[in-house]
Amino acid sequence: MTAIKICGITRRQDAELAAELGAAFVGFVLWPKSPRAATLEVVRNIARSLENGVMPVGVFVDPSEREVEAAVDAGIRIAQIHGEPPSWTNGKPPVRTIRAVHLAAEGDAIEPNIADETVLLDAHDPVMHGGTGKTVDWARAAIIARSRHVILAGGLTPENVADAITQVTPFAVDVSSGIESSPGIKDHARLRAFITAARGT
Question: Which domains does the chain possess?
């Protein structure tokens, strides 16, 4: 079954509903320029109270090692990195990392061209780094998903997630803006509909 990540969490009630409905991951955007930015205090108040094995993910853009470590102290268990990762002092990060990538201009390549087994594939936006509501080319994403664990992001909604899963067969799907009433505020009816559609595929 395709796993589900609910991203852009800023409120406890949204995280708790996602967990209750079976999401495997909830994401906290720890990039101050995002309209869905969460503070470490928000992470601290929500992440450690999650049940049902839901994994808290910190979303970073060009983070420093100190920023990632502070998030881990607050309860983050996976670091999703857009842009460049830090040069880790001990040679490895304090938690599992997942790199965000986008489709190259042509073919089935990704940028940055990394060899990681698991990647988050999103629409390319050099300014917003995600949460744009733009979809990726699912046909090309499906080629990448044949050889990697792809977390498919970009423009997913309750209305199209079933088609996305059918076409791409990703390891997981990631939604943020597609289930919101405003940035960082999840519409609970749409959140339910998204998870129902994804789990029914």
Answer: 3-199 (3.20.20.70)
